[in-house]
Amino acid sequence: MTKLVVEVHDASDLMPKDGQGSASPFVEVNFDDQIQRTQTKQKDLNPYWNEKLVFNINDPKHLPHKTIDVVVRNDRKGGHHNFLGRVSIYGVSVPFSESEASVQRYPLDKRGLFSQVKGDIALRIYALHGNDSYPSQIPQQQPAAAEESKSKTTTVETPLQEIPTNTIIDEELPSMPVDKKLKKKKEKEVRTFHSVGAAGHGHDHGGGGGGGGGGGGAPPPAVSAGFEFMKEKAPTVETRTDFARAAGPGPATVSQMQFQKTNPEFGLVETSPRVAARMRYRGGDKTSTTYDLVEQMHFLFVSVVKARDLPVMDVSGSLDPYVEVKLGNYKGVTKHLEKNQNPVWKQIFAFSKEKLQSNLLEVIVKDKDIGKDDFVGRVFFDLTEVPLRLPPDSPLAPQWYKLEDKHGNKFKGEIMLAVWMGTQADESFPEAWHSDAHNISHVNLTNTRSKVYFSPKLYYLRVLVIEAQDLVPSEKGRGPDAYVRVQLGNQLRPTRPSQMRVNNPVWNEELMFVASEPFEDFVVVTVEDRIGPGKDEILGRVFISLREIPQRVESKFPDTRWYNLHRPSLAAKDETEKTKEKFSSKIHLRLSLDSGYHVLDESTHFSSDLQPSSKHLRKRNIGILELGILSAKNLLPLKSKDGRLTDAYCVAKYGNKWIRTRTLLDTLTPKWNEQYTWEVYDPCTVITIGVFDNCHINGKDDARDQRIGKVRIRLSTLETNRIYTHYYPLLVLTPSGLKKHGELHLAVRFTCTAWVNMMAQYGRPPLPKMHYIHPISVRHIDWLRHQAMQIVAARLTRAEPPLRREIVEYMLDVDYHMWSLRRSKANFNRIMSLISGVAAVCRWFDDICHWRNPITTCLVHILFLILVCYPELILSTIFLCLFVIGIWNYRFRPRHPPHMDARLSHAEFAHPDELDEEFDTFPTSRSADIVRMRYDRLRSVGGRVQTVVGDLASQGERAQALLSWRDPRGTAIFIIFSLIWAVFIYVTPFQVVAVLVGLYMLRHPRFRSRMPSVPVNFFKRLPAKSDMLL
Are residues 719 and 788 part of one domain? Predict the structure, then answer.
């Protein structure tokens, strides 16, 4: 007997349906009233079954007219199984040979309009005759054999297209009786899809027996043109794009890339660390109240304060003392102080309890000498006797200890020490010398410590250059070609030259700058005369201190003011010498520090602060954001050339507060366990966390810290008072492609302290009201954002330890506005995914109009007649439907915070040339041939966009032509038809008109024509202005 074999390989990106952010899926296959199912994969949204289901085929001749129904369900113990998606495959596409079959990915289809379905499933279907043998399990091909077959076998991807089922039936069954044909037509229509070789392609599917064979697809083209996406086919998996195009109300397909299986390594992994907040710990450990999002790490702290009455060791009668703190193989050393018998060090050492190698702590005082250092004295501590200190207790008071010589005899010298056991919540922790940095010098030790930074408070400086009087050019008798140059720090903006060459020029031009506190800079206003190309003469200059400029909080501008212009030789001198000048030119200015604005220093799409500059206009905080940076794993060794691994540290930015964790040296699995807190003023903001490799621990000032990855979390997507603990993938896009540098373990909690204020925030504008009363022009906003980023980077670089420029620019996404074909594709797909929702509603309405489901169509008719009879129910019905849909979707709400999505960003399968273009400098540094090729590609993309814009313009111009008499006959027909309709609607009740129009729209397909309707034909014949273009 002939057998039908359905190999169920795997599924990906399934919809969570168990209420806990996951699902337990199984596959049920129905063929010819034979039902079989796979095993259940517990709590897996990317299940892998690798099972083979075998069905009997009673008559192989009827296989092309049968349907294989594959349904994915969520296994609920003792209850109704949730629907996760389905696939219907027509038997005509089933090959009668195992060698001709290949694994294909099918996007899961919805069961109805309101079904929540996503993901796809990989299947391999074929038929075997009775004399063929088939194993019970899918053979697993060895990796080496798979690589060999991949290198030896090359297949050409067969184009996929949809074939109407009615055509197949009519063509393949000419001898079927008439009654059977009618019976077939009366059966429920099933969408089916088939693999058909296109003309000109004589290749079959490159088969490969079992589950691992098959060759790879043809290599992608070297350059992608326009929005033609790169198609890189997996060795044995083909994506059924034809299936996706015709699939019911699912999302519209833009490209084959959309159905590539997401790499599970780029996903989020939920964890359950042993933190006090998650364990609901209530006990004597006081650190659980403030440091409850991280795992407690115990340290042995040794505070070396000072010493007194140390003996003289040198012949010259001097002593250069330093202290050596020794615990097992770890040794910490203080600075040596020259010629000092009563030294003061005030240094703290911290030894991790997990790495303690001895129960005896030894503190040795030594004398720095040219050769071997001299022994002065020592003190021993038994670690079992060291006290435990728990914040918020006061710091442990240091004590004097007498020093002992090598024989254990005490002498006059003493040292002041404090030794205690504590946690990372101890206030001494950030400043301590850690045992893992035992080989770092004191100069470079500061580059490894954790710190908190604050961005400078920024203001917009508005300068209105109005006019000048009594300018005196060097060449008498010639009117000056005057313009004004205004400079604030490194910011320089010129005005346009005056339209009139007179000694009293008028400009009336406004310039904007970014100023920062403290106001130490001067605004330098210079009037220059353009004598010739590249030759300018300074006519006068004035220095204005920022402290003298009034602040503008409300919309009212301050008064204008006249300033004396001084010659360059006198401009920088004091006021007494300026007053000696009998005559000077004047300039009319209006200056103001606009503190009612928020200075944008990061992209508006993921801003972390939207507060105005003035503290008087700021609202009260609505909550608290707590971030626990626990650890990282699977980091890549970025210093392998130097014989080291990675020196990783984290930087987090929210609002004007930046934090930096300590650097953990030479490890691929760092454990920070540091917790930080921010005040939240707006829930619709984003916190950014980045991980970097410290390249300054060896004193290399010219080195740049390397990027390991970055994570963004939007606060509005978090539930209040809930603790999120996940491993976030650290993804970095490089010119060679997307790379995963490891995973970052974070704990996040957003606590709301003012529910009413937080809810009211959703009705308020995101930016302060000055942005809407006096909006900043577009030509200013990008330049001002760049200047604000430069000021923040320059200020944080001057801190100790410095938060370097490359770190700040990466955290603020300074190059986010640059052109990227990859990002353009991602945005295009985002638009298409939005349009797919509208398209799904249109398809549903089209199914109603064509009576695809008679029961649903009848219900819609009844609802329509009810709304026509009772029009007051229309709005309430619409809002009730929105409410029901929202309640229904609550079960499928996201359970995890957002993260960097490689699939959405088109980063995982980006073409190398696109990445090379994205990382190119501005202006470009590539060769002329590459630039020419990219320019041609950009022209191709622009041509397609131009065509779409032209089509939209044509439709709008046709609508205008209805009443513009550009087509006299068309306009006459339209206005006469409008008059007839006006009279008809006036004399006919509205309900009657609505019923007639509705029944006409919902008429049965028997009364429909396949030709376009009369209104559509009339509209398409109206003239557009496209024929007037050159």
Answer: yes
